[in-house]
Automatic annotation (TrEMBL):
Residues 1-90 are annotated as: Disordered. This is DUF2188 domain-containing protein. InterPro entries: DUF2188 (IPR018691). Residues 1-18, 27-48, 57-90 have a biased composition (Basic and acidic residues). Coiled coil: none annotated.
Length: 90
């Protein structure tokens, strides 16, 4: 069995794809119009999971990406910002 290589690099396609997946460690937790929370990876078209509470969504995001960087949408209005800003979790 031969491995295909990308024309732009000499690395096999399987190695290239593995590297792309591991570099995408940002996970976002967004409130949806329905009132529940979506867990999404950076640049994804669909949510990885949808959960009823923000706490459950954060726990699920940590399960999906234990060493990833989590970003939570701020859903309350404060004098310092608006809901479209993100806060990072440790």
């Amino acid at each position: 069995m031969t491995k295909r290589t990308d024309e732009s690099t000499s690395k096999p396609q399987t190695e290239r794809k593995a590297k792309q997946v591991s570099s995408n460690k940002h996970v976002y937790i967004e409130r949806r119009p329905e009132g529940d929370y979506a867990v999404r990876r950076a640049n994804s078209e669909r949510a990885s999971d949808v959960l009823p509470t923000q706490r459950q969504a954060i726990e699920r995001a940590r399960e999906l990406s234990p060493d990833g960087r989590l970003h939570v949408e701020r859903v309350r209005k404060t004098s310092e910002g608006t809901p479209d800003r993100w806060r990072k979790l440790k």
